[in-house]
Amino acid sequence: MMGAPLLRVSCIALAMPFALLAAYGLQPLQGEEVGKRLDRSKLELVFAEEFDEPISFYDVEHAPEGRWKTNFRHGVQDPASPIAWQARTLVPNEELQYYGDPFRDANPFEWRPGELTIVATRSEVGAPHGLPYLSGLITTETSFEQTYGYFEARVTMPVGKGLWPAFWLIPGLVPQPEPGAPQPIREVDVFENIGKDGEVYASVHREEDGRHITDNQRIPVDTVTEPHTYGVLVGRNTITWYVDDVAVKESPNVDFHKPAHMLLNLAVGGDWPGNPDATTRFPARMTIDWVRAYRLKGPAS
Predict the structure, then answer these.
(1) Which among 32, 187, 207, 208 is annotated as catalytic?
(2) Which pLDDT value is given to residue 213?
(3) Which range is most confident: 22-31, 68-77, 152-161?
């Protein structure tokens, strides 16, 4: 093991104070940027994937120059290992999907000029590991990372019980004194959705005195089944989330100060969204029109 599996957990504890504030006719405090439009004049494009050409997948043997890796950074990375499957799901979250390997077992992606679609289906590919669904994950772990800047994607999501699409930023692995030692918890979720229309969640995860701290907020969106642009601006002092170029959440940047790569995936099942039921429609499709990243002109704020 190269490190402990990543966790994506909603901070349920934060929901209660918000509900109590609302009950007394009060609103949660918001950052000064919330409601303002993104100033793109301060951004310089440094990464752009428009999906105009067939996707360039990374593979350690077949395509080491590829742009998009299709498994997590954690776990055994040797595809020949009998436990390589552990880097293609998130066991601690009790998820039910196996993220397919286009070079070896299954391709969960559909491409046409201008868009990439991750397709989740019932499948036998991951069944030997107790994973009855096939889905997809793409990450720039081997091709692009950045510390501060603006990261965005234009995405259309599926809805239905047990579906868990997400776009997140993850720093690289930190060398540990012992192999397999847990990695520090650092993660920004540009968005997550747990199968319900009209909302996404914006989050930042960190570790403090050995405790997992999550700053998580529900963000209303008119309909996630239509394309929207979801982005996050990571600065030295603040992290600001955007939907369609309008700021919707702001939080202090406590310790997200390492180069991070982008990851988009469609999970199925898990402790947060619950598992699919008879009402969940498959195939479920998450369509990505483009993914872009920008550096900040001048000093990062």
Answers:
(1) 187
(2) 85
(3) 152-161
- Distance set, CA 260 to CA 43, 141, 174 (Å): 18, 8, 12
Measure the CA–CA gap between 108 and 94, rounded to whole angstroms: 20
Sequence-separated (6 or more) residues with CB below 8 Å from residue 270: 90, 93, 94, 95, 96, 162, 164
C-alpha 70, offset from chain centre: 13
164 within domain boundaries: yes
Q: Is 80's pLDDT higher than 50?
A: yes
What ranges in 81-206 are assigned the alpha helix state H? none
Give domain status of residue 133, yes or no.
Answer: yes
242 within a domain of the structure (yes/no)? yes
Q: Decide if 271 is inside a domain.
A: yes
Q: pTM of this prediction?
A: 0.88
Residues 6+ apart with CB under 8 A from 182: 3, 4, 176
Catalytic-role residue among 44, 192, 207, 250: 192
Active site residue 192: yes
Q: CA torsion 16→19→23→26, rounded to 10°?
A: 110
> For residue 98, is pLDDT > 80?
yes
- The proportion of the chain whose per-residue pLDDT surpasses 90, expressed as a percent, equals 78
